[in-house]
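User: Fold this one for me? It's Apea-like HEPN domain-containing protein.
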Amino acid sequence: MKVESNDKYSSGNEKESSMNKGQKSSFKLTKEVYEKDFIPVYNLEECRPKTFIEFEVVLSFHIPMYTSRTVTLQSEQEYFSFRFDMVTTNESYKYLIGEELQILNVHKTKMLMMVAVELEYETILQDTERYYNDYFDLLLGNLNQIVLNYMIVKKDDDCHYLTKEMLPAVILVRSTNLETWENQKGLFMIHTHLPVEKELLSAKEVQEVMKMQLVVSWNLNPFLRGEQFVYTARRYFKQGFYLEAVNAIQTSVEVLIRTLFEELLRSEGKLDKEIEEQLEDTAFMAIIKKILSSYLGGSWDVTKDKTAVGKWYKNTYVLRNKATHSGRIPTFQEVDEAIYDALEFRKFIVERIKANYKKYPKLKEYII
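Assistant: Here's what I get for Apea-like HEPN domain-containing protein.
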């Protein structure tokens, strides 16, 4: 992929610095701007665009580019351009020291993600949902490469990979016909995770929370240790941290399995030292494949991909290993399936425990 910097699009560092301070940067695609700032970096013999699409987003972090700095990437059928701006958010910290107000500004990168494509303007307008989603995904993939490049070069650990859920749920989009210069502007929803206002806790609910405090503080229910990772996984998923979500949900399963094995050994009268040694000497998958069926019955064969254990193994366990070992970020669909199948496997485990209440009465107290 060819990379170009639209240097003519910027007017010099001094002016850009001034624009950063005042945050007066604005962009409007006109025929003059297009011919002056974009045509020079396009290879029109390979790809001659007919439609220009812009998406306006605000990132959750700041890449300190000069305002209006634009980078263009060329593929076979389109050109991807990224225009960097800056916003100072309402999250800025203010401290009143004596009579002087100290302000620590919090900056985030505002960006125009733009794509110039060979498709006819009318073709795109006939199915905007499809084309907007397709081109937004392509732009986001290329932006992630730019972010990674920046992180590596500047060693900036405040930045991270981006997914749709990390961006505002609704963004501005504009399509322009590069032949007639007519355009259409509108809103584009990229995900459905909108903020929700929570109801205040009732007196009864507050009592339940404080009652649980005693259980957690005194470790009266060892199975609660893994519950936090379920909520962590769901939160990561909603926030768009796909890799972290898969790791967290798999951790919840591993904590549940090892806690269950520990309690089963304890029910046999084994001492803490014996239990500790056996836990250290027994691999996680060995517990599932060879041990739990003798205690709880049921099918624990991970090769049967139609069962709860088989689906968890294929869609959660294997995915977690592949993602962790290769560094590949899972897709939205993969994470959605991984969390669902892990929760179904957890339900299966609980059902097996309930089916053996008489055999292991102590477990009954923990589950209920």
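One thing worth pointing out: The chain has two domains: 2-189, 203-367.
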